[in-house]
Write a structure and sequence with these properties.
It contains 6 helices and 5 strands; from the N terminus they run αβαβαβαβαβα. It is α/β, with parallel strands linked by helices. Strand 4, helix 5 and strand 5 form a beta-alpha-beta unit. Helix 1 packs across helix 2, helix 2 crosses helix 3 and helix 4 runs parallel beside helix 5. The longest helix is centred in the middle third of the chain and has 21 residues.
């Protein structure tokens, strides 16, 4: 690649700042859901934050059933969250990005996500979702609708196809190419 105008560092900084929006002075929040897509979102968010000299807030929300107290200790979910956040912090460290990790327990993910973005004065919120048969569309639309309607900042929502659908599509494309 040849840069004919400006330096690469300046270009990366401008790209990062434009992603955060005009006059945006806030950080980047990345919502982790435990999918493979999280790695891509963390890397993307950390690259943008580094270029714009901002901080990344890595957030995982544990939804607590209404039958339990909000401060209930959910051991399996907490261990899973620790693994996710440790992996995300390793990525942030490799990129050279200032990052903080947080686990939030809430009744509903949508309001918790918006509260985190508000509390940390974020300019951008990254959320990913992988289509699968185990997650209902109504669960997704409830959270995403709330975040989109109430977020104090830009929201980037990234949806990946179901991995089995992607594999099936790949096999179909290979069969078509062979014929």
């Amino acid at each position: 690649m040849v840069h004919l105008w400006g330096s690469k560092a300046k270009e990366e900084s401008e790209i990062s700042k434009s992603a955060l929006g005009n006059c945006a002075a806030g950080d980047i929040a990345i919502v982790l859901g435990g999918e493979q897509l999280d790695t891509n979102l963390v890397y993307l968010g950390c690259q943008m934050a580094k270029g714009a000299r901002r901080k990344v807030h890595l957030v995982h929300v544990i939804e607590v059933p209404r039958a339990l107290p909000l401060k209930a200790v959910l051991t399996q979910e907490s261990e899973r969250a620790d693994q996710m956040l440790n992996a995300a912090m390793e990525i942030a460290e490799r990129v050279g990005c200032d990052a903080a990790a947080e686990v939030v327990q809430a009744r509903d993910a949508g309001p918790a996500i918006v509260d985190e973005a508000t509390d940390h004065h974020c300019a951008l919120l990254l959320i990913g979702f992988v289509r699968s048969s185990s997650k209902s569309f109504s669960e997704l639309s409830k959270t995403v609708s709330y975040v989109l309607a109430n977020s104090p900042c830009r929201v980037w929502f990234v949806q990946d196809p179901n991995s089995t659908n992607a594999q099936n599509n790949h096999h179909v494309q290979q069969a078509i190419a062979k014929s």
